[in-house]
Amino acid sequence: MSRGVTRAVSRAVSRAPGAGGHSVLVVPVPALEEYVAARTAHYDDSCLSADPAWVHAHITLLGPWLPDPAPADLARVGEVLSGVSPFEVKLGEVSVFPDGLIHLRPSPDEPFTALTRALAAAFPGYAPYAGRFPDPVPHLTLDQVGGAVSLSSVRADLADLLPVTLTVDRVDLQWWANHACRVLHSWVLTGRSRDHPSV
What we know:
Elements (H helix, E strand, L loop, with lengths): L4 E5 L11 E8 L4 H11 L14 E5 L8 H10 L6 E5 L2 E3 L4 E4 L5 H13 L17 E5 L6 H7 L6 E5 L1 E8 L4 E11 L7
Antiparallel strand pairs: 1-10, 2-3, 2-9, 4-8, 5-6, 6-7, 9-10
């Protein structure tokens, strides 16, 4: 990744998110939105969002994050992302974790791991996945094994969609809450050092 600074999109937090949810820093994956949104609706339609900026299909960088991010917190994220230029990854192999979570792993995954480590270092009180996994694996969640859902069934469902080539050019701050999922802020990756994040 080249050195430079990100340009923040003007979607600053207009009010405190409130109780009953959590924030997550993610990379959106629009190419798989239709599939992931449909699976989300199947399990819990209260997690569907009407926000046009929201993308259900995503790769988590850090979450759960701050319950009420302040402008200074958004600026710090901008500094962490400083110098990150857009980069390209492929999503093609459907896999399953030991707990039955069916997912796609980006290739290469090192840029995501590096971003997660940098964000976690900037906010030491917020370990990835609340510290449940000491070495988290970057992934896009697709489904959960159970009932009629299996690794082979998900592979068949996505056979005509994969592989996906993703240009990572944006990081979103998503707020997850029943009937209130929305994007609170976004940073566009530019790799340009002359701009500074505006929050």
